[in-house]
Structure formats: C-alpha cells, structure tokens
Amino acid sequence: MSEVSGLHRDDRLATLTGWGRTSPSRAYLVPVHDEATAVDEVRGAGARGILARGLGRSYGDSAQNAGGAVLDMTTLNQVLSFDSVSGIVTVEAGISIDALITLFLPQGWFVPVTPGTRSVTIGGAIAADIHGKNHHVAGSIGNHIHSIDLLFADGQVRTLSPDQSSDQFWATVGGMGLTGVILRARVQLTKVPSAFINVQTQRANNLDELMERQIDLEHKYPYCVAWIDCLSKGSKLGRGVITAGSFADISQLPSNKAARPLDYEPATTISAPTMAPSGLLNRWSVAAFNEAWFRKSPKHRQDEIQSMATFFHPLDGVAGWNALYGRAGFIQYQFVVPEDAAEVVRTAIERLSNIQAASFLAVLKRFGAGNLAPMSFPMPGWTLALDIPTGVVGLSHVLDGLDELIAQAGGRVYLAKDSRMRSELLPMMYPRIEEWNHTRELMDPNQHFRSDQARRLHR
Amino acid sequence: MIDALGQPQSVFLAGGTSEIGLAIVRELIGPRVDRIVLAGRNLSQMAQDAEPFQVSGHTVSIVELDVEDTAGHEGALDSVFSQGDIDIAIMAIGVLGIQSDDERDVDSAMRTIRVNSTDSIELTFRTFQQLVQQGHGTVIVLSSIAAVRPRRANFIYGAGKAGLDAFVQGLIELGNEVGIKVILVRPGFVRTKMTEGMAEAPFSLDPIDVAKDIKNAIGKGKSIIYSPAQIGPLATALKVIPRPILRKLPR
Fold first, then answer.
1. Set of chain A residues whose Cβ sits within 8 Å of the Cβ of B170
2. Cβ A395–B3 below 8 Å, yes or no?
3. Do A290 and A376 share a domain, yes or no?
C-alpha cells in the first residue's frame, strides 16, 4: 500500500476501453518501438500481468489489463520483407491491414482476410483469428499465417508455425493475446487482378429468403454477406440485402478504370461527432435508416463495379463512428450456430426486436469450415453480428438467454466482440478450451499474460 | 470484472452486518456475482448473514474488521483483496451513537464522531487505493442526510458523517482522474436495528428502498445519491431555512 502514489501520478497510465466504449480500466500503456522494449516489459511484468494491444477494435474488454501493463503495439509496424513471387510478406505485428492494403494492393496483392474495418493490426487479427466475407472459401486469418514470432512469458522469442510447434501456433491463433506477445508474422497475401470488386446485390423480403439466396450466391462468389433489418417483424422478419462479389478482371472494368486497375485510394473519411448524445441511435432513427437502406437497395443488381474500400469497409468512411452511441457505449453481439440450428438466428432477431434493441448494424453470414485453433470462433453455420446500445431495458436478461440457447445448439459467442457473457458458458461454447488451457499452461505457467476479459471469463 | 452492462462479479461489504449494506449486496448481485466478502466485527452475525447468499450459490468469505482499529485496516483489506479483484466495495460503516449520552459525555461524543469521520475515512481511502491498484472498481460510501443538514437530535452523528461526506465529495473527483467510480449515498431516515425505537422522520424508508435507489442511480451514472430522491431538494431547503424556524420543525 505504500506504493499507491505511483498509480496516481504516472503519465503512462491510461484509461482503456474497447471499441464499444464500455467497462474502462486503467493500465500502464507502454509504446513498443522495438523488440527490446517488449522483452524488458514482459520480463518486468508485475502481479497484474501484461498484454499486447493493437488498434483497440475489439469491442469489449479483451485488449485491456486493469492495474497491469499494456503494450501499445501500433508503433511496431514495419514491413520487413516481401517476396513478390510467393506473395509472402513478413511484417511487424503492429502494422494495420490498412497499411498492408495501401502498400500491396497497387502491386496486385490483397490481404487474405479482411474484417469490416481496415483499422486492425495483424497481431490483433491473429489473436482474434478474424474472419471476413470470404470465410466460406478462405477460412479465417490463421489459415494464411506461415509463422509467428512470439515473445513468451520467459522473455524468449520463438518462431511458431503450423508445422513445427503446431500446438503453440494454434493456441496463439484465436488466443486473445494470452499466450504471449506477437512480434512478427509471415502472412500469405492473395493475388488480385484489380482494386475493384464486381458486386452482385440481391434484396430478400424475409429471413428464409435471405438465407436461401445467400447459400446460392456464396457458391458463385468468394465474398458474400447479408445486411439484416433487425427491426422488421412478422412476415418481413429478417428481411435484408445480400452483397456478393469477386475481384474484377480488367476486362470487366470500365475503360477509365481498366487503364489503371490497381489504383487504390482509400476514401477520405468524415468524422462522427465526438460528443454525440446518448440515444442519437434509437429505435426510431435506426428504423428510419433501415427502411431507407432497404428501399434504396435494388431488388437485384448484377456486375456493379465498386471500390475495394466501399465493398469491404463501408464504416471506415466514418471515423470514430462508435461515438455515435454516446457516453454509455454499446455492445456488439456476434454468435455462430451450426447449420442445423439456423432457427436460433430467427429467435435472436425476434427476442431483440421484442425489447426494441435497435441494431444499426446487423450482419448475417454463413461460415465455411473452421481451423485447428482450439479457441477460434468460426465453425460451419450461420453467424449473426449486431450492435446494441447498452441502455436497452432488459438487455442483459435477453442476451443471457440467447447465450444459453446458442451454447445448447453447439454454437458460440465471438470473444473479440464479447463484453458481458457469463463465464460458465465458455467451456460449453469452446469445448476444446481444456486443450488450449493445457498449452497456455506450458507456455505461460504463471499467467503473465492477462486481460480484463480473461479475468472475467477464465476462472 | 464489471461487464459492459454494469454487472459485477464480486462485491465487498465493509460493515458486514449492516442492514442497508446487505440490502445493497442483495440488490446488486445478479447472475454474475460469484464472490461476496463480508467484513466486520461480529463474526457470528456475518456467518448467519452469509447463509442465504451461500444457499443461492455465491461464495461468501468473512473477514474480521474493526473500523476503530485503524492499525488493522491494512491487514484486513489485504486479506479481502488477496482473494481476487473486488468490483464493487460498499462502505456501510459507522455508529449512530446515543445522542443523549454523547451530549453529556465528551469522550463518548468524540468516539461517535471519530468512528463516523476519521476511522471511516481511513477505511474508505485505503479501500479506494486498493481499487486504484487493481485498475478498476466502484466504491459506494454510505453518508447521511445528517451530514448535509445536522439537526438538534443528531448533530454529533451528523458532524462525523459530515467529515466523511466532505472527504468523499473530493474522492469522487480524484476517482474520476484515476478511473475509480465513487458513489456517495445520503439516505434519510432508514428503519433498521440502528434506528429502532426512534421517532420516524418524514420520508422514512427501508434498507431495500435505499438499495434500489442506489442501483437505479448507478445505472444513470450519478455519483451523489439522496435516498429517497425527494430529500435532496429538501436538504437544500433546510440549509436556507432560518435557524429559529428550523428549530420549530418536526424532526
């Protein structure tokens, strides 16, 4: 108790939250410019442990470490080497997907997997084993990593790959930073003919139709996702708009674009107001938006050429959009259920609609096969992701009920989004957790690597 | 950890036999609380109070803590916090004293003032520092309407609570800077064993009412809570009522 003054005065102390801006906690935030800094910090970690953090896009408390140290990895962000024949790039973990795209798309290479935002680091992407619109053909990011240089709790850096040290590699993929600090990774990029997407759009009037059409479209296109209007009820329940596509061949581009097919300029961003009043996004404003969005979407449109950024990252056009939810913040709820439990998706939409949980963003996608990582989120089946403001009355009870339904159906909640699930359900949702615990125990016996989410969920 | 919807996993009650404190614990625990720590002097009473929580599946631990034994604060808190993080700490400490005795016996009066003021401040401050060390948490401190407007019938108790109340007002600000949420509660007349046999004041309430008010106010992000809410404006009014008139009001 005699050292308490330290936590009051130290300039390095920062209050951290996830993208949902809920559950803040304080930690020593250490910018990492080189490997030596990271090694020193890991070796000197105190009783509250240490954790790597990227761009802070996980929604809940998974990149926070209350009372301990947090390594800001975004300053360790260089490309170390690139093989233009194989498309394998070696990068430092703090590099963003945005930077990778900006550097390599003009050379005809694209990231193998991108989430709905370019503002994630490669380290964070691996730790969450992120997925994208091409999961049904490409799997998650872990499937495209040749090796990881991981800083272990003992201060040693070891190279992990799926062939050698396979257990430790796959425990780190989807391990939410709890096995060590990812310093570098070798990533397999994907060759693309242009920086444009040939997009197919279809509107569906209810959930069954939406699912049917999505299954049909994903057989034809490597990228596919549906936006769902979660506020529509009755016969319109689950209506939405599916967009699918593939990178356009030069022959498909209009002549102005065909001349320079790999030109890529991320759209300039507008900023959301930083002090938005809570409740700006309420069920009326969201309902109005959803109605407009649904009506503006074509019933059926083929071969529309969109820029990469428009297709993959529409929200990156609005910087700091999370502030639209105001001070109280919001929850993102994402789950997956096996194919045969698709009814859970309907139940989720119904129950959330009943408590008028306005979801600005609701996205439905069908996953393909999962990978070898015991804590990876994707599994074959349907995944629904939605945003909900925290102030909705009865929300906790409804989500607890949905969690149980999902767990019983053999599904799971995505840890990179989670900020509130009950710890008892974790082993049900992630049945291979014991295997992962065992590997983690070997890698970090004293649990140096800690997060608020781990404190909440792993007991 | 407190989750995104404000639900705690662990609760610490200093003043482990306090009826208001226990009511707050009952109100705050939901499906997520699995650890409750009761700290106080009366071990057998706390063991009894722990039972219903244990029956409903919570782990309860009991720590011996005497607010007046300030030298023992640190050791007691170390054993509270050594069992894991505390998400919400409830400071339900203090004594009402017997005003008629305290008026005649300065030693007795000073004890009432010390327990409610400096002893309570010390325990609150040490608890706060523990939360600062763990990097997160909320501390709820029970003050009293008597701290805002001491009356003839309770000014000795009120003087002590006023010291605590002033300290905690500042602690709210410090907490803002260091990421700890501090909540100051000023209940009116609460029907408990402590007030048994006393004439009830207007707006009297039960411990459960105070607990509900606190839960609602936390949800709204308030840091100073009157319970019931109506006594807030009343306290302000009492401050400006001339003393000769105040003297004639019922208690």
1. none
2. no
3. yes
Question: Is A184 found in the same domain as A212?
Answer: no
- Contact between chains at B135 and A26 (C-beta distance less than 8 A): yes
Task: Supply the range of the domain harboring residue A158.
Answer: 75-192
A455 chain-B contacts, CB cut-off 8 A = 1, 85
Tell me what pLDDT residue A4 has: 42
Q: How far apart are CA B166 and CA B148, in angstroms?
A: 9
- Residues of A (42-81) whose Cβ lies below 8 Å from B: 48, 60-61, 65-68
pLDDT at A420 over 90: yes
The proportion of chain A whose per-residue pLDDT surpasses 90, expressed as a percent, equals: 78
For chain B, give every domain's residue range: 10-248
- B133 → chain A, closest CA residue: A67
B38-94 pLDDT per residue, tens: 999 999 999 999 999 999 999 999 999 999 999 999 999 999 999 999 999 999 999
**Residue B157 annotated to the active site:** yes
B10-248 under CATH 3.40.50.720, yes or no: yes
Calculate how close chain A gets to B15, using CA atoms only, in Å: 21
User: Is residue A444 in a domain?
Assistant: no
Query: Per-residue confidence at A255, pLDDT binned at 50, 70, 90?
Result: very high
Do residue A301 and residue A424 come from a single domain?
A: yes
pLDDT digits (tens, 9 = 90+) for A116-133: 999 999 999 999 999 999
The domain that holds A118 is classified in CATH as: 3.30.465.10
Interface of B with A (CB under 8 A): 1-7, 9, 30-32, 74, 78, 85, 126, 129-130, 132-136, 174, 177-179, 221
- Nearest-by-CA chain A residue for B78: A1
Among residues A192, A213, A246, the one where a domain terminates is: A192
A22 to chain B, closest Cα gap in Å: 5
Contact B179 A24 (CB under 8 A): yes
